[in-house]
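To whoever is on call:

I kicked off a structure prediction for a single chain this morning and the downstream step that reads the tokens threw a length-mismatch warning. I double-checked the sequence; it's 408 residues and nothing unusual in it as far as I can see. Pasting both halves so you can look.
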Amino acid sequence: MVTKIETIIVGGGQGGLSTSYFLSQQGKEHVVLEKSLQAGNAWRNGRWDSFTLLTPNWSFRLPGAEYQDNDPNGFMARDKIVARFERYVTQYHLPIQYNEHVISIEQTERSSGYRVITEDAIWEASNVVIATGLYQKPKRLPLNANLPERILQFHSGEYRNPGTLPDGDVLVVGSAQSGCQIAEELYQNGRKVYLCVGSAGRAPRRYRGKDVYEWLNLSGFLDRTVDKLPSPKAKFAGNPHVSGKDGGKTLNLHKFSRDGVQLLGQLQSVTDDTIWFSQDLKENLMKADKFEEEIVKIVDDYIIRTGITAPQEQLPVYRDGFEQKEITELNLNSTRISTIIWANGYNFDFSFVRLPVRDDDGFPIQNRGVTAFPGLYFIGLPWLNKQKSGLLLGVGESAEYIASVIAS
């Protein structure tokens, strides 16, 4: 049996729910198909216990549920984020169906619409909005199969707290947002931590009297469009490390080194019980330092350009990471490493869309989320024309545009 409906939204995250909100306001028939069993699944099951928003609470801008409480500059804890998503679905009676895993989207025989096939049903719709996001599948390296069985391995999305790990030291692979936050929590709880450092940058939490995210928003940095990027692959650069924990703070790899974390280059290979690392630690530390310098310059230039009154500030400079001896190999038998946490990001996969809508990198070919196929759209991804189009700050703007195209 085929169920027919005007619009199907695939994915019940912030992009899908925001689009559903606008379609509901317009009285447009639609349904949201979500493969998980509850709202806010990525926040609920893909984040650790102490996780907080990395951006200030004021940036929580789900349309119709914008943050209006008394702590706009704080950072919401994971459970409060999940609760807001749950209330959002209930408050606006959004038509979401859970446990509906979409496995295929194709055009109907007459190309007048789309057939959406789930594990249990077949749907047909004039419009399909794909809102599955950019972070769909945990990324693991093929070489992790070569590690000894006694080593516990899992992705950062499966990490919950230090108490769930076996005794021993921890190797964290990846130094973007998740890797740095997890590494800090572990070493502050008495664990010896080894951290593979990648090319992700560092942003100061606060600078010249404001949260750096507020400066980036005011300056238009988050409104940059995709044509401003140096290359198409720049869309996938790791997010700079920063934290919302304890009221928000800067994470600095040099300070990690001072606190006893063993910094390493990027993981290269595994041979028997030996892990090999690239000799790029100092190069990657320089990239993190340079990124902070560039962010500071953006803020300084904006302040000068607009004449805003802001206190002068000189950020502290640490060099500890450069003083560490660069290690290129670790023998697991001579260390106490019992756990490896893969914090090397996620892969996206839109192959379930059986149409030529992906570029060479697998990213959707679209303009502001609108594809060349009438009625087929993407939402909830960064750089759907602006950097912020995948963020809680900007997803509403994208969803409103997609909903207006559908309505017209």
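Update from on-call: the warning came from a stale cache, not from the record. Cleared it. Sanity check on the structure: The CA atoms of residues 136 and 348 lie 5 Å apart.
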